[in-house]
Amino acid sequence: RVVYVNGDFVREKEAKVSVFDRGFLFGDGVYEVCSVLDGKLIDKDAHLARLGRSLESLKMNCPASLEDITSIQRELIAKNGIVEGTIYLQVTRGVADRDFNFPNSVTPSLVIFTQKKNLLNDPIAGKGISVITLPDIRWRRRDIKTVMLLPASLAKQEALERGAGDAWLVEDGYVTEGSANNAYIVTMGGVIVTRQLTHSILHGITRKAVLKLAEQDGYEVEERAFTPGEACEAAEAFITSASSFVTPVVKINDRVLCNGIPGPVTSKLRRLYIEMARAEAE
Ligand code: PMP
């Protein structure tokens, strides 16, 4: 596999970053994951816009123009022959002698790599996943997409060790989001509920697209917090992310939803999302 590091396309074994990179020492960096279908990028402008917001929130500069980033992504997709998968992009503040305050003049580091993945016929999406609820121990600016992912990693690991597919994180009695995805329920009355956009959750690119499709299709959408208790009484539940699209949740803690199979609303939204993504990928 070929990866991109600070201006060069190199084989992954030859790719190097400094031990003094602030991404490595402080988690001082931001990232984006964009999915690739038919060799084309899905929702690239929205991902780049969010990258800009994350960088601005951390007073970090972008090491390349957004057009250059897109060209690098396209070149890497071609070099690695990615038809279906994801492309990961990371910007860190750069390399400096270790000190907590920001270094004065530093060049940000840019790393981009691809991952092959079955997105359309993902067997997990066909069956649905189970989730457990766990305390949300992350920081309070989850709207900034930083590489400080240890709390999310711990949650996912605990979920897998306990036989679940993922964790839904809970703060002050309400679900915030999944370890790496936004969380939704469909009430018995057919209303789609997902948490409102604040600093408490990542503003998912897939979330925005799916809510738009849902409203266009006539579903009622409520952007508000819900409790694990309400989720357990729901008709359906699902998650969204760039790499999982719309994925059904068929069990929450010990409660089986929808007889343990993906529900009709979830299945329809997944189909609508894939149709739109394929049509608009570029
Ligand atoms: N929330 C969190 C915490 C995430 O890590 C992700 C995936 N990056 C999402 C939500 C979903 O965001 P998107 O649809 O932009 O992938």
Task: Summarize this structure briefly.
This protein is α+β, with helices and mostly antiparallel strands and 282 residues long.
Task: Tag the structure with descriptive keywords.
alpha+beta, six-stranded antiparallel sheet, nine-stranded mixed sheet, D-amino Acid Aminotransferase, Chain A, domain 2, D-amino Acid Aminotransferase, Chain A, domain 1, binds 4'-deoxy-4'-aminopyridoxal-5'-phosphate
Describe this structure in words.
The protein has 282 residues and is an alpha+beta fold. The chain folds into 2 domains: 115 residues, D-amino Acid Aminotransferase, Chain A, domain 1; 158 residues, D-amino Acid Aminotransferase, Chain A, domain 2. It is built from 8 helices and 15 strands. Strands 7, 8, 9, 10, 11, 12, 13, 14 and 15 form a 9-stranded mixed β-sheet that branches. The chain has a 6-stranded antiparallel β-sheet with strand order 2-1-6-5-3-4. Helix 6 packs across helix 8. The protein is globular and about 55 Å long. The mean pLDDT is 98. The site of 4'-deoxy-4'-aminopyridoxal-5'-phosphate (PMP) has 13 residues, from helix 6 and strand 13. It is an enzyme of class 2 (transferase). Its EC number is 2.6.1.42. This is Probable branched-chain-amino-acid aminotransferase. One of its GO terms (molecular function) is branched-chain-amino-acid transaminase activity. Belongs to the class-IV pyridoxal-phosphate-dependent aminotransferase family.
